[in-house]
Write a structure and sequence with these properties.
The chain is α+β, with helices and mostly antiparallel strands. About 15% of the residues lie in helices and about 35% in strands. The protein is built from nine helices and 33 strands. The strands form eight sheets. Strands 1, 2, 3, 6, 7, 9 and 10 form a seven-stranded antiparallel β-sheet that branches. A hairpin with a 6-residue loop joins strand 4 and strand 5. Helix 1 packs across helix 2. The longest helix is centred in the middle third of the chain and has 12 residues. The chain is elongated, with a radius of gyration of 28 Å. InterPro entries: Endo/exonu/phosph_ase_sf (IPR036691), Endo/exonuclease/phosphatase (IPR005135).
Length: about 500
Amino acid sequence: MYFQKLLLAVASALYFTLSVSSTIIDPKGNITLVEGEPYFTFDYETPEPHEKNWIGLYEDAGVGLIINWAEKYSKNSAAWVYAPESKGRVKVPVGNLRPGRYTAFFHAKDGYDWLSWPFDVYFIEEPKTGLEFVVDEITLPPARGGDSYGANIGGLIRGGSKGVTFHQGTNLPGWLDITKEGGLGGRPGRRARDLTFTVYAKRGESMASLKVHLPVRGRTQVKVPELRIMSMNLWFGGTRFSEYHEKQLRFIIKSKADIIGIQEDHGGDRAKALAEALGWYYWASKESHSILSKFPIQITTGNINKSGGALIELDGEWQMVNFWVAHLNYTPYGPYNFCFDGMSADEVMQSEYDSGRPTEIEDTLSSMGRELENTDDVPVFLVGDFNAPSHLDWTDKHKHCGQGKFDWPTSKKPLEAGLIDSYRVAYPDPSADEGITYSSITPWNEDYGKAEPQERLDFIYHKGSMLEVVDSWVMMAGKPNHVLDEWTSDHAAVMTLYKFVYEMGELKRR
């Protein structure tokens, strides 16, 4: 939560073990930090209102309590304000507070009787050089009660984490530990529930915070009930744009993607860098196509003529998927043949085969053969930039450059192999939803002096009886076509949300 664009406060439960002779501490009131408000803003409530009730902040208060706690405190408050009503909202001025941890107390009648339980807040002033996470919040891969868990947020600091240490913020449960390097690990109990907590990073006197969501599944629950699959062309790895690494990280985190097929990976460098920053897994072909996954990658195929695949374990051997990514040859380009060159349908079809794309997709599908026969046990995905449109989009009712129905080989062949175009499951009518992914930054083709054909070139195919398409959509960040903008590609990404339609009992019988 930012205060006047410079300050951040985070609430945290604070538990005290007191040995106070014959004293029972049982406050009846309540105090909470208000998110999204300036300074330290608190809502309070008490059954004992008084004009001299007050809320104070104490630095390092955990060691400040003394035996006669109701009479005085061992140190003065760093900042305070009266809270006279039975219920209200007040702002404690930060004044000259230095960054660090403070404890908020709700005290009675200018004294030190507790009107509510105290809790920690963190006062964080952004450094002039800027210490911050690339995002404000993140959802981590799910944990399962009773199983060991690990994740890492150490790579999410803007500009790198050199000199940065990571610390517990709010509501971190007893089973979960955080290392100074940003590693999160532990073993949740069998009855553990979903978590939302805060961690903070520190470098010198500068601090930044990150809100973290951690789903926790029960022993009898499917660990991954839904799966977000993405295809993402990085366009020269994103290197034509400023701060491309942080922009790509930010987009991926906010998208909540689980597995991503990457194209134009800059020799595999981007998948490696993104995986290390996210604490994910990756496979890189060292050419153009790579795989980025929240979940462990166990077996990979190597490069197979513009494509590659991996077996990914969502929940050990109980829940697995086969995932393939392809980046087919880009030239000659069929829409240019129709729209700019005036070729006939037969000429364009010959041009498609001359491009090598049909052979590339045939080689991919051939390598997927056994996997395509076993999709009732392990579903399969094929995603990528095919550099050719779909026959599902080019129809007599939805013509392109005067051309109606055209059987683009690179979309026909996957369907003939039993794969399903997930976008057209969600949106079967191309006239109502074209799903255009290219070109996000080129409305006009300078070489031809004509409007650039806008096409759906990026696809997510699947096969598996347990998969149900919930939705599919085209994604970008911000407005493209400027080096300073958030989007770092000439393609839009495409995402499909899948639901698994089996129960845990079925899963264990496989």
